[in-house]
Queue: 3 jobs
Job 1
Amino acid sequence: MRYAWDALRRRPGRSLLTSLGIGLATGLVVLLLSLSSGITASSTQLAQSSGVDLLATSADTSLSSSSFPPLTGAHRLESEMTQVDPNVATASPWLLGELVFANSSLYARSNSSVSGSGVPGGWAPTGSGIVGWIPGANAGIEVPTMVQGAGFPVPGDPHYAGGTYTGPSTHAIVLDQSLAQVLRVSIGSEVYVGATTPDGPAQLAGWFANATGFKVVGISGPFWLVPSALLAFTYLSELQSLLGGVATQSDTASIVLIHLHDGSQAGADQRRLAAAFPALTVFTLSDILGEIGNVVDLYRTFGTLVGAVGVAVALLFATTILLMSVDDRSREIAVLRALGFGPGWITRQILVEGLLLALFGLVVGAPLGYLGAIGMNAFLFRLLPPLPAGFTFVAFDGTVLAGTLLLVVAIGLAAGVLPAVRALRLPIAQELRAP
């Protein structure tokens, strides 16, 4: 140890630069590992606290699908699933769609002049995701938290009216904070919803004539289950009507969220429901977490490739520096070997020298990686829409710390292998006779 330390002290500039190079690679690895760990942990925690034990979609649908084909008989599914499986506490059908939204200010400007000439530049309807569900029929399932307003005025789905779709429409809508901010609306404001996007100001009057007016009854916080920057919520039957024709007649939904009385045997409930409803595909929470893991693994693979490049560069740099160090001390090493210091001792000193450089790199790189991860977390929170409370992109757990330490040790040892071989192959007599 003393000999290796003395070798480093004799060349402080070279040792410092080598440790800095290893430190930068270490910092990059800390950043990538903490991102992977944070996203995995946050996604798992949100999924496990959601109350969703099973998820049903139309048959032959993958969780990785960008869209879900419609399933029919949505309103009847809760009672039917409860009859088939008494362990089903809640079966909540959700219809997911994309519609276009506009506020009352745009409506007034579009009607204040001919061909929309009074509409200011940049004013236009906004596309948004929308969810149709049955308020009050989500017991045990996490739903968006209202940050303003009372939310939906009545439970159930009055417009559905037992399948006749002749009941009163509430025209009530809840917007998430991002969409409310974009539309510049608040509780009690009127918003207009249509299925198409007008080509320009001249088409706005016609678009509003065919749009449906809704009253904002609530503004919600971010909702992790439907990761959209802009999101609205309304009654299932009213969204079915907006999407039109066949959707209303066939009572469609996109997914069914299922909460069980006892979720410990979700696999048995999955098989029971799948057998009773062949037109559906039923996924467990484990399936959902597995799909989340697959997505994270994809980014982890990319991050691993980036980190591997940094590690390879640091390793080559450290190996080159140690080879130079051996060459500089060739006569000294030959004298030590002539005095009886064996190959094992020489090899250990050079490997220790590599480990010391790597550990100094860890001292530099770990804080850099930590600060970089904190900065990346803050940047992503500013870049993305509001995220649920408790979500974080980075996490510093035992996996991150252990992985970083193992990497540093591996760099130090690997960097010393070739220099140690070089030291053992030095011709002792020739080195001693050299001037």
Note: The mean pLDDT is 83.
Job 2
Amino acid sequence: MRLLNFIDGQWVAPVGEEFQQDYDPATGEVLLEVPRSGREDAVRAIAAAKQAFKTWRLVPAPKRGEILFRVGQLLMDRKVELAREMTREMGKVTLEAQGDVQEGIDMAFYMAGEGRRSFGYTTPSELPDKFAMATRDPIGVAGIITPWNFPMAIPTWKIFPALVAGNTVVFKPASETPHLAYQLVKILEEAGVPKGVVNLVFGSGQEVGETLISHPDVALISFTGSNETGRHVAEVAGGSLKRVSLELGGKNAIIVMDDADLELAVDGIIWSAFGTTGQRCTACSRLIVQAGIYDELKERLKARIGALKLGAGLDSSTDVGPLINRQAMEKVHKYVQIGKDEGAHLEIGGEVATDARLSSGNFYLPTLFTDVSMEMRIAQEEIFGPVLSMIKVKSLEEAVEVNNRVTYGLSSSIFTSNVNAAFRAIRDLLTGIVYINAGTIGAEIHLPFGGTRGTGNGHREAGTAALDFFSEWKAVYVDYSGKLQRAQIDD
């Protein structure tokens, strides 16, 4: 199968007629061919989106929302099929892939409703016979740049609020997961999105991404990816005063206190650390444990980790799927060696899977380090793989300090039966998301998603907060006094 770009309502080959192959990370099988687009393709898509914005911005927001309702229904009807394709392309197990699609369904219905709920507000004027109100305006062409680990959820977090707010879109998905992007745009087309309103351009960050962040006709950029690339996006796009939303890395921690329900904590830790093979920005890679239950928790975790089954995600008995590619495997293994060199104790895992049935894929054994200090690189740097580091602490205060002593601030969690400790954690953990007696993953789409410090630049995705990024506030004053009134000027 050969995919095409979608520009101005037409499925078209890249100008250079170049394509590259897309692989199944569990088997190495070639799945399809993807356009290797360049600057010229991106410029054509931007021009189409700019032209479409003139009419799309005038479509009543409830009507824009009706299209998203149809999108949500189509996603629901095809959930199983889309999840299967995601598993083949990205590697996550089927149940997780279905959850990824479900986030897209939830976001479609939520943002569709915002077509009738994108409220402004009125407020009393300080002058007589004068009316004051604030309304939302769309901004223009939105450049959407998404990663491979959530190939349905993350694009919908960005595209759907952009559309319901009245913006048009040029969408550049990750090169590793093009098929889900293609399927999503096909559904948008089928649901009735007018030509030019959504454009899809496959290609590299160096070619397509760079064009989006530097082109003067792109008004805003929504990017999810690495901190290194995010800084570059901010520098280039910020230089032309584009509005930029960055959702970057994480080094998330679960705190387990002596009074925690250990069975529940182990369930939460395993899911958070090894779900999606640790390839989530919200994955738990640090485990901060109060000294009294440190050894018992270690033994429980070793037993559970050792029982996890690796394999292709389409196998219903699989617990942990492959990493996305060979480069990811090499990076994970490099960090395991760093951990050993720093003096951390490798309890289990720490190597590429040697089972013959896994030899064609990118499989790495789920890994647990103990005797980790908070200064070690494995406790500070994002690994983005199935590696968990245990850090011993004496108190809640020390646990909070360890949690906050990283450059990131996305997600954190505490397991405790003490309500006072829970509320202190809510107050003191410096992350954009906090969980009590649950792991670090599982955000819901009607709440704001994002982090503090090095995790991003302060914007939030999901919930009504997403509309704050994709719209501009306009203050309106209507003076019906029939005379000049000067605000703040004494008579």
Note: The domain at 5-248+456-476 is CATH 3.40.605.10 (Aldehyde Dehydrogenase; Chain A, domain 1).
Job 3
Amino acid sequence: MKAALLAQDGSVLFEARRPTGREHGTDAVVAAILDFATDLADEGRSRFGVAPLAAGVAVPGTIDERNGIAVFSANLGWRDLPLRKLLGERLAGPDGSAMPVALGHDVRSGGLAEGRLGAGRGVDRFLFIALGTGIAGAIGIDGRIEAGAHGYGGEIGHVVVRPGGPQCGCGARGCLETLASASAVSRAWAEAGGDPDADAASCAAAVDAGDDRAIAVWQRAVDALADGIILAQSLLDPSTVIVGGGLAEAGDTLFTPLRTAVTERLTFQMPPKVVPAMLKDTAASLGAGLLAWDLLSLEVTA
């Protein structure tokens, strides 16, 4: 878990990290989140003499943002967790009133932070893509994230780019994340190299060393990702595509062939800038803080 105290202008006042404790079960994870938030609020009081005004929390999985429910997380084990209510009550003020709490999706929160504080700052239309264990995304419009009618906007990882391809956990075949995520690259490289412990980072290193097998694995992933970007470009027409997540840590090893592959696929589409994310693994926690400030702004407006 990553956490931060965030000023209204987005500047970071304090940061901290803790393990989720998920090996101890779902209840332990929830307790760890609540304890971490309590300690962070206490840190704010001791450092600045005031309590935080609101809290934001960004979680993976499916969420009901409007009602503050963490609906499902395969990794953390919860279902229908009323996280906003639990956190608001834990952080209640001296009069017993619950603290305002904003709940967000981790990748969309990361996209929000990149849009306001990172690589998308000043960009009116962008697509944020996070290449990790899976692939997720966020659609940025004028400093906000478009979540869609049902909260699933930006799920580019489940765009089918290879019909009839590998089975995806969502039930479809040939989804982008089965071909271009860090997990997909790790699996393909382990199979190609005969090393079950091989991962995406070692594949990137082998690409840099000129290993033909690694180059073939890497290019297949790049081609799939480029196809997904072109599909998104046709539908959304973003001016900038921001790529983050673990696979983006490969730097030019990823971005040089990716930019070439995207350019080669353009027909009528205007070419987007394809750039690395700036905020790394702190993006989601910063985005959660921005959601909290937005919540306060909405309350003032109302």
Note: The domain at 119-277 is CATH 3.30.420.40 (Nucleotidyltransferase; domain 5).
